[in-house]
Amino acid sequence: MDKFRKIFTLDNYIVPVAAVIMGLFVGAIVMLVGGYDPILAYSSLFTQVFGDMYDFGEAIREMTPFILTGLAVAFAFRAGLFNIGADGQLLIGMTAATFVGIKFTGLPFYIHAPLAVIAGGLFGGLWAAIVGFLKAKRGINEVITSIMMNWVGFYGANYVVNHFLLVPGTQQSENIAPTASISIHFLTGIFGNARLHWGTLIALVAVVFFYVYLWKTKQGYEVRAVGLNPNAAGYAGINVGRNIIKTMFISGVFAGLAGAFQVLGVFQYQSVFASSPGYGFDGIAVALLGMNNPFGVLLAAILYGTLTYGSAGMSFGADVPPELVKIVIGAIIFFIAAQGIVRWVLGPFYGKRKKEKVL
Amino acid sequence: MNKVFKLSLVMVLAMSVILAGCGSKSSSSNKSGIKIGMVTDVGGVNDKSFNQSAWEALEALNKDKGINIKYLQSKSDSDYNPNLNKFVKDNYDLTWGIGFSLGDAVKQVATENPNSKLAIIDSVVDAPNVQSVTFAENEGSFLVGVVAGMMTKTNKVGFIGGAESPVIKRFEVGFKAGVAAVNPNAEVKITYAGAFDKPDIGKSLAATLYNDGADIVFPAAGSTGNGVFNEATSRNKQGGSKVWVIGVDKDQSLEFGDDVTLTSMVKRVDEAVKKVTQEVIDGTFQGGKTEVLGLKQNGVGLPDTSKKNVPADVLAKVEEYKQKIISGEIKVPAE
To answer: How far apart are CA A280 and CA A151, in angstroms?
Structure first.
C-alpha cells in the first residue's frame, strides 16, 4: 500500500489534475464565446459516458486502445526512447491478428483466439524491434525511423487487406472466424450490446506487467538505467543495444495488442483505412498525461477515452458543433501536454505547498 | 497521508457536484413533435456533397414542418454504432445513416432495436425496420459522359473515384459508356483516390490527369473532389488551355463557380431524404424495402444551370439519351 501511494505523491498528480481543470475551463470559455452552454455541454459529456450501461460499455471499449498505446509510448520513454511509431505497430499487429483470424480456420476457440492475439502482439513487437535494431546497431534516431515506419505499416496493412482479405466490392476484409473473436458475450448482454471484449482485461494485466517488469525485475532495472543515462549504464556493464531492442519490442507488443483487440473484439473485420485511426498518436498524449507511469497511463486513458467518447454527447445534448468539440478537447490536451504553463499558473500555490511540506 | 486523503475528498465532492448538475439538466431538452436524427460518415455536414445535401433537406423540412432535427458526425468507423444508438435510444422517429459505409452499423442497430425506424442512403440493408435508398448513378453518369464526350477538345477525359465500391463503380461504368456512345475515339482515364475526405490527393490526381492532356475530369469522391476543383480553378487562372470539372452529387457550380464547373451529375439525396422523412411524418413509413431512384424517378440528372456552359445542341443530345434510357431503349451497364 505504501509503495502504491508513493506513485501518487502530491507532486505527481497535482499538475495533471490542474491541467485537466484548466483545459475544461478554456473549453468552457470557447463554448461561451460560440454561444453554447458549457455546463450543459459538460454534463452531456458525462451523461454520454455514464448515462446508461450501453454507453458505459462503449466508453470502456473506447478506452482500451488508449491504455495500450499509452503504455507502449510510456514504456519506450522509460528507456529514453521516443516511440512515435505506435500507430504503425498497431496497424501491423491488427493486420497480423486479422490474417490469423480469417485464414486459420478449423481451430477451437481456445487456441484460435489466443493465437490471433499473440500474432498481433508479436508482429507489432517485431515491427518496433526493427526501429530498435537500427537505433542500437547504427545509431539512427528512433523518432525519424518510427515516423517513417508508420507509413510503411499503414500502406502495408492496406496492401494486405486489399490483396488477401478483401470482400470484393467493399472497403473491408472478410469477417474473422467466430472462433477468433474475443467478445465477452455474457457481458455484452448486460451492457446493452456494447462491444466489450477480453482485450480490456489483458490491457489491465499489461498495466500491472509494466509496473512489475520495470520496478521489480533486474531486466527492468537495466531498462531504466539505460533510460536515465545510457553511457553510465554501458559503463556499468549493461548491454545498452540489447536493452534498446528489447524495450522497443515490448513497446511494440503493447501497440500491436491494441490493434489486434480492435479487430478481434470490436469490428470483427479490418477496413482499408483512408487515413490512420490515430490511436498511436493519442497514445503519446496519454503517456504524457500519465507521466509515463503505468497506473498514471491507466487513469489518463480513462480520461482520454471519456473525452473522446463523450464528445458525441456534447453535439447531441448541447448542440455544440463537432468543430467546437474538437477545439475543447484540443484545449484540454494542450494543457496536459504543455505542463510548463500549468506549473507557471500554479506557481504561487505550488511554492507555498512546498514550504508546508518542510514542516 | 492526511493531505492526500483531504485532496481526494475535495475531488470526489467536486465530481459529485458536476454529476448532480447533469441529472437536472438533461431532461429539459424534450420537445414535442417528430424527431429525426442523422448520422454522417467521416465527411461531416459541410462536405459540399453528400452529407450536406441530406442535412439541407432535413433543415428545409425543419423550417416547413417544424420537426426536430439533429445530426452526429462520426470521427471514425467505431463511432457509427454508438451514434446511431444515441438516436435510437432517445426514441427518435427516424434515424438516417448517410453513406454506404454505415451499412453494417445500421444493420446491427436495426436488428438489436426492432421497434426503431432507420433509413440508409447508398446501401441496401435487409431488415424489416430499415428503408434503403439507392440511386442509379450509372444513368446520370451516362448523361454527363455524353456531355464530356461531345465537348472534349483533346479527346481525353478523366475520372477520379473515391474508393472502389459498387456505388462508385456505377459512376465509372456509366460515365465510360456515355462517353463511348457519342465519341468512340475519346479516351477515359480512370484513377482512384482511395479516400472520400482527402482534397489534397484529389488535387494531385487532377494535376496528373490534366498534365496528361485530359480537359474534363469527373470526380466521384466526396470532398476529395474539392481538390479537383481547386486544381482546375488555379489552372484556368494561370491561363493555358481551358480545363473543366464535372460536379458530383450536388449542383457544384453553385459552390465552385460556372467558369470551372461544366455540369454536375446531381444525385437527389435531398429528394430521397425528404421523401422518406415525409413518410415518417405522415405515418406511412414502411421498412424492409429498397427504393432505386434513377432518371425516371428524377433521382439523378443534370441541373438546370448546365445550360450556361453546355451548348444547346449537346443538351438536346443529352435529352435524347435521357428519353432513350427512361424508355428502356438503352440499358446503361452498372458494373
So the answer is: 12
Q: What average pLDDT is seen over chain B?
A: 85
The nearest CA of chain A is from the CA of B112 a distance in Å of 8
pLDDT at residue A263, rounded to an integer? 93
Contact A274 B198 (CB under 8 A): yes
How many other CB atoms sit within 10 Å of the CB of residue A30? 18
Nearest CB neighbour to B77, from listed A40, A61, A271: A271
Q: Global pTM?
A: 0.78
The verdict on A312 touching B (C-beta cutoff 8 Å) is yes
Is the CB of residue A182 less than 8 Å from the CB of residue A198?
Answer: yes
* A83-131 tens-digit pLDDT: 999 999 999 999 999 999 999 988 898 999 999 999 999 999 999 999 9
A171 interfaces chain B, CB cutoff of 8 Å: yes
pLDDT at B232: 93
What cell was used for A101?
483470424
Chain B 5-24, CB below 8 Å of chain A: which residues? 7, 11, 18-19, 21-22
| Domains in chain B, CATH or no CATH each | 32-135+270-293 (3.40.50.2300), 137-266+303-327 (3.40.50.2300)
pLDDT at A328 > cutoff 80: no
Residue A142 one-letter amino acid: E
Sheet containing B94-98, strands listed edge to edge, beginning at the edge strand earlier in sequence: B68-72, B35-39, B94-98, B118-121, B130-135, B290-293
SS3 for B179-232 is: HHHHCCCCEEEEEECCCCCCHHHHHHHHHHHHHCCCCEEEEECCCHHHHHHHHH
Residue A223, number of CB atoms within 10 A of its CB: 26
Confidence (pLDDT) at A320 = 84
Using an 8 Å CB-CB cutoff, list chain B residues near A48.
86
- CB-nearest partner of A40 from B25, B196, B198: B25
Q: Smallest Cβ distance to B18: which of A46, A62, A170?
A: A46
Sign of CA dihedral B167, B173, B174, B175: positive
Instruction: Using the structure block, give the residue that is written with the C-alpha cell 441529472.
Output: B23
pLDDT at B3: 59
**C-beta atoms of A272 and B194 within 8 A:** yes
